[in-house]
Amino acid sequence: MRLLHTSDWHLGRSFHRVSLLTAQHAYLDHLVETVTARDVDAVLVAGDVYDRAVPPLAAVELFDSALHRLAAAGVPTIMISGNHDSARRLGVGAGLMERGGVHLRTDPERCGEPVLIDDADGPVAFYGLPYLEPALVRDRLGAGRAAHTEVLGAAMDRVRADLAARPAGTRSVVLAHAFVTGGEVSDSERDLTVGGVASVPAAVFDGVDYVALGHLHGCQTLSERVRYSGSPLAYSFSEAAHRKSSWLIDLGADGEVTAERVDAPVPRPLARLRGRLEALLADPALERHAEHWVEATLTDPVRPPEPMARLTERFPHTLALAFDPDEGPVVTFASYAQRVRGRDDQEVAEDFVEHVREGRAADDGERAVLRAAFEEVRLHEATEEVAP
C-alpha cells in the first residue's frame, strides 16, 4: 500500500506578515497532483491543519477545497488534530465526511478505533492519535499521571490491544502529533508544555509498522518506521536550510517500509545574511539572494542610518532585521523575538522577574507560582475548545 505522509499545513499562517495563502494553495495543488500521479492509496495528515483554533475564512475554504478534491480522486484521507487546531471544531461533520473517504480523528477516546483499508495484501489498520493535552486526557485514557509519555503510552496501549484482536498479518499505521525524543526543533513550533517534559521516547510507538508524526517542522527520520514529514512551507527563518517535502511510503505485504521524499514547491527561498551593511550591499556573491526572503543581521559597531530602506534597495524582499555589533561595548540591539528565541514561557517570565529586580532571580516558590499560572491559562484555553 502506498501512503503519502504530510503534516503541519498551518493553513492561514503568514510569514513575517506576508500572506502564505497562495503558497499553501500551490502546495495543496501539488499534493493532489502527487496523489493521482503516484498512485497513492491513502493520504495521512498528522495534525496542525490550521494555524490557530479559529482559522480565517479563507483558510477554511482552502481546507474544504482540498478535501473535496481528494474525495473526488477516490483516495482515502486520514487526518488528526494538532496542538494548533481546535479538535472540537476540526471534528465537526466527521461522521458525514467519513462517507466521502475523509476520516477525521480528533477524539482521544477513539485512539483504539482504526480506519481499515484493504489492498491486495490484506487490511491495514490506521490509528489516529490527535494531540493529547496531558491534564485534559489523563483520566479519559486511564494514564498514570498527567505527562506526555504517560498519556501517549495509554493511547498506544489501546492501539496495541485492538491490533492484537485482529487477524494475524494485519498491518498497522499510527498518526500522532507529538515531540518525539531525537527530533530537531525550529523556531516556528509552539511549545507543548510548561515546566515539564514535552518529549516522548520513540519506543512508546513500538509494535506498529509505521508511525506518521506531526509537530516538528523539519522532515526527519527517527527510525525507518518513525518519521516526521515536516511542514510543507517554511514558517520561520530557522527553517532556511530545510528541504520541504512529504514522505511517499510503500508498506509491503509483511509490513516492510520503503520511503521516498517528494519535494514540495518553494514559493520563495529563504536567506539569512550576516555582516556589516556596506559589505552586504556590495558583495557580488549575494546577488543570488536578490529575490529571496531575507533575514539580515547587521554587525556594524554603530547602527547605520536607514538600514532597512538601504537593504530593500538591493534585497526587496527583506523581512527581518537585527543588530549584533562585532566591536565596541557589549550592547544588544537584538529584537525581542531574538532574545526569547528557544525559550519557553516559563523561562521568559523568570528572566523578566530577574530583570525588574536588578539581577535577583526568582526563587523556587516564585517559579512554582509562575508554573501554576501558565498551566492554568493553558488548561483554560484547552477547556474552552472542548466545552460543549
From TrEMBL:
Keyword Nuclease in annotation: yes
Keywords assigned by UniProt, alphabetized: DNA recombination, DNA replication, Endonuclease, Exonuclease, Hydrolase, Nuclease
Nuclease SbcCD subunit D C-terminal domain location: 267-356
Positions in coiled-coil regions: none
Pfam families: Metallophos, SbcD_C
InterPro entries named among the record's database cross-references: Calcineurin-like_PHP, DNA_Repair-Maintenance_Comp, Metallo-depent_PP-like, Mre11_N, SbcD, SbcD_C
UniProt GO molecular function: 3'-5' exonuclease activity; endonuclease activity
Keyword set includes Hydrolase: yes
Gene Ontology biological process terms from the UniProt entry: DNA recombination; DNA replication
CDD domains: MPP_Mre11_N
Residue ranges constituting the Calcineurin-like phosphoesterase domain according to the UniProt record: 1-218
Superkingdom of this protein's organism: Bacteria
Function: SbcCD cleaves DNA hairpin structures. These structures can inhibit DNA replication and are intermediates in certain DNA recombination reactions. The complex acts as a 3'->5' double strand exonuclease that can open hairpins. It also has a 5' single-strand endonuclease activity.
Record-stated family: Belongs to the SbcD family.
Subunit structure: Heterodimer of SbcC and SbcD.
Protein name: Nuclease SbcCD subunit D
Species, as recorded: Streptomyces benahoarensis
Lineage of source species: Bacteria, Bacillati, Actinomycetota, Actinomycetes, Kitasatosporales
Gene that specifies this protein: sbcD
